[in-house]
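Aim 2 progress. For Shisa N-terminal domain-containing protein, the working sequence is reproduced below.
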Amino acid sequence: MSAVCESYHSREKVFVDSFTCPKAGGESTAVFCCGFSDLKYCCDDPNSFFPYEYGYMWWLSLGALVGLSVAAVVLLAFVITLCVLCYLFVTTKPRGLDSGLPLRAPGTVSRCRVCAGPSLLKH
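Predicted C-alpha cells for this construct:
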C-alpha cells in the first residue's frame, strides 16, 4: 500500500515534485500522504495534520495549565484582598453624626460667650 503526494508550492514559493509514500529512507509505516497545500509529508495516520511528534504538545499543554493556575491564584488573592479592604472600610466608618462642639486646644479659654456656656456669663 502506498500513496502519492502530488506536487505543490511550499510557503517559500519553492516547487516540490510529487513523491510516493513511504519515502526511501523514511519510516515504512508512513504510507499516507498528509499535510496542507503548502507542506506535504508521509505519515502513518491519515488524519494527521502536523508533521511533528506529539510529545512537545504535552509540554505546551502542561505549561499553559501551570500558567493558568498561577493566574487563577493571583486573581483569587486579588479578589479576597479587595473584599477584605471593602469590609474594613465599611465597618470602620464613624457611625455617629458630628456633635457640633468646637474644636480647641486643651487649656485655652474660649472668647465666645455663646460657646463658653452660662458659667462665664455670671461675672
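The two ends are 124 Å apart (CA to CA). This observation will guide construct design in the next reporting period.
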